[in-house]
Description:
The structure is a homodimer.
Chain A: E1 2-7, H1 11-22, H2 24-31, E2 35-41, E3 55-56, H3 60-63, E4 68-73, H4 81-90, E5 94-97, H5 100-116, E6 121-122, H6 134-143, E7 146-152, H7 155-167, H8 171-180, H9 189-192, H10 195-209, E8 219-220, H11 228-236, E9 239-249, E10 255-265, E11 277-284, E12 288-295, H12 299-315, E13 340-349, H13 352-363, E14 367-368, E15 378-382, E16 386-387, H14 388-396, E17 401-409
Helix pairs in contact in A: 1-12, 4-5, 5-10, 7-8, 13-14
Amino acid sequence: MVQIAIMGYGVVGSGVAEVMLKNKKSIYHKAGQPIGISKILDVRNFPDSPLADKFTKNFDDIVNDPGIRIVVETIGGLTPAYEYVRRCLLAGKSVVTSNKELVASKGDELLAIARENNLNFLFEASVGGGIPILRPLDQCLAANEVYEIAGILNGTTNFVLTKMISDSMSFEDALKLAQQLGYAERDPQADIEGHDTCRKICILASLAFGRHVYPEQVHTEGISNITLDDVKYASAFDGAIKLIGRACKNSDGRLDCIVAPMIIPQASKLAEVNDEYNGILVRGDAIGDVVFYGRGAGKLPTASAVVADIIDEVKHLGARKYLSWDPGLKDYVSDYREAEYATLLRLRGSDLESALNKLEKALGKCTTVNAKDTPSDELALYTPVVCESLLDKAIESLNGVSLINRIRIASL
Amino acid sequence: MVQIAIMGYGVVGSGVAEVMLKNKKSIYHKAGQPIGISKILDVRNFPDSPLADKFTKNFDDIVNDPGIRIVVETIGGLTPAYEYVRRCLLAGKSVVTSNKELVASKGDELLAIARENNLNFLFEASVGGGIPILRPLDQCLAANEVYEIAGILNGTTNFVLTKMISDSMSFEDALKLAQQLGYAERDPQADIEGHDTCRKICILASLAFGRHVYPEQVHTEGISNITLDDVKYASAFDGAIKLIGRACKNSDGRLDCIVAPMIIPQASKLAEVNDEYNGILVRGDAIGDVVFYGRGAGKLPTASAVVADIIDEVKHLGARKYLSWDPGLKDYVSDYREAEYATLLRLRGSDLESALNKLEKALGKCTTVNAKDTPSDELALYTPVVCESLLDKAIESLNGVSLINRIRIASL
């Protein structure tokens, strides 16, 4: 019998307990021995829970209990999760977490502590919810040079964009609907502004390319300034707007890593990922394109990924260290303005024709786009693939026109 | 340094050597130690290969070499692969194979020998080519009750069907094109008649549900009788015809397992799997639907899956036994005529109206389908969801009409 503790009995933490109790028999069979929940840390009381006698409000009860071999961290955020996880690892306990903020910010340090103490720090649930992605990616990496990862990594924003595209709902209405359906939190900033996606692409990029990528190194844009007109222009181009997290290896060994709404071709596998679903594209030299698709969030999908990690750890207690990467480096991620994209530009003003001429002089041939029911006083165009800093300069040089929006176009 | 041998230097075997040499450095890093190819078994000579000095025509050179810890079997078929693999395992060597026929027919026996000898028998490459599916499925299974697996598991037939659907090509022309492009073999029977898909669904079902499913237990239909008219009727129903391998757990503990062309809704994730690609849908109680997508065949994708298994085995020599299932049982797979499907029926004859009346009396309300440019002298209809044996009886009772085709409709 292996004893575990759960820290944080919110949506995911209580889901972990639920899955453990419900699938007890098959989990026993898979793990090779029974797994018991010996303590649960939460500031709240749960007198009606079948596990009511396991609750404690004191972290010391867990960290000082030598009987606990594995600690599940489902508190979320950095404080106190980071300190608690660190101390658990130093106390000789393996840790399983669903906390993407923790892994994205402190993954390299916590992995190193785990390695030094012959433990595991596991976080399959931190990316893609119930979709198995980190272990399969590790497996892909074994025999492939993976050169790009791109994904729709946040279900809330994908639900909002899908409603805008399919039902011509406004951003505000789509977000309200997402909140009503429980797909968006009351404070949806972390989702809408791209921070959640940023944390997830940091974790994927760190694993895929072997060196930690910190969230503050990644240029991050959200979807709050995407309008129905943008959606129409994208459709006219036979594309869909998706919030994409993307990381590619450059020939100089550095990474391009960015989070932004992008127009991707309808024929792309990621364009077909709709509603609250996630999709992750992995590109390798030998396998070509592989896509993983499923629910990226939700109580039971995420909990099932946590439980799969627990079972894996029970099977390999004191043995296998499987995930690992090196600490980050200051200039490891390239300036996003060095990356090259074709871009949709929407301009308004008195002299649009001379603006177009100026842009073409600076960037090369642009293509104007006409979409039904879009404002008649504006010019929409696609630039050729150019360096973003060049595009910035070209836009700055325009007189008498204002930029309504600009959206990158990615061939994914 | 771990020494391996490769048996069979065809497309996959030579691909394994190619990936091992090309990604030598990263493979060393991943495996924790260098891996050397010490012998290659093939009846042919390869004097120009960089590995020319490793070739042997004598299996004894491999099985009797105590320095060889892992043997890769890429011969294909049962003879002599089965005997060779058996003897390698008995001689204390772990085996990695891409041979789906071998795993589908003898997997339970070879897994048992591996287990008894504290070895691994690994076969990630046997299903889905380079798509990681067996380990992720094992991971999904850890915390989920998986209740259904369905997939497009054969790239050749999917390419042919895609060309029929998208370009209105005839079956014969599409098959010819597939052969020209190297997607279909000169003798395409195993693909076209569904046997390849059958082997793969046997492996997936064995792993997912814990008991061996033998190919002869699975009712298997190919796509050679699918015509452009069938495709048109499917489109009229907003569906696509795909060759599906499917396994579901019944409430009585037995399995429904079948390979057949099926009409699936355009909205299904599997309907979006086109050309030579594969897609595998896994349905579990906690994760919901997860889909894995990528190239299901080809030299390098398949070789990369073999190499990933080799690396995994090098990391766990003498340790982890990870895949396993029980031997099969005679009545474990239900009679396919017990399964319930809605079905597209195409009838021709003198008294179609009374045929429709008779069918509706026996089965319940049917829906007639009209599709553009289909034969005017026939009746096409969708039955309600009924047991196949009931449908058989109803069709037999019809007088003066002939059945042109019948195709199951599946909600995947």
